[in-house]
């Protein structure tokens, strides 16, 4: 196993991790910004007002993108196992 293979494998793993976390993080960012804007406009400073909508939106994002996330993880894992003999030699 060469250092180039290690760097390529690490880059692929980080790329997959970024792709898989993007829907959840972007959803939380958008909902958090909208709730923060609403709180600023109405001057309501309630902590639970920001938590509940974010939790619901993240749950919806996971329901909508969960199948795609699972397929991406399975593809990466399958490719990793196919490369295993070359990595061990």
From TrEMBL:
Provide this UniProt record's keywords sorted from A to Z.
Bacterial flagellum, Cell membrane, Cell projection, Cilium, Flagellum, Membrane, Transmembrane, Transmembrane helix
Q: How does it sit in the membrane?
A: Multi-pass membrane protein
Under the heading InterPro entries, the entry gives: Bac_export_3 (IPR002191), FliQ (IPR006305)
Show the GO cellular component annotation of the record.
bacterial-type flagellum basal body; plasma membrane
Localization, per the record, is: Cell membrane; Bacterial flagellum basal body
Instruction: Tell me which Gene Ontology terms the entry assigns under biological process.
Output: bacterial-type flagellum assembly; protein secretion
From the record, give the transmembrane residue ranges. Answer: 20-39, 51-70
Q: What is its main location?
A: membrane
The record's comment on protein family reads:
Belongs to the FliQ/MopD/SpaQ family.
Instruction: Say what the protein does.
Output: Role in flagellar biosynthesis.
NCBIfam families, A to Z: fliQ
Q: What is this protein called?
A: Flagellar biosynthetic protein FliQ
Q: Which organism is it from?
A: Actinoplanes aureus
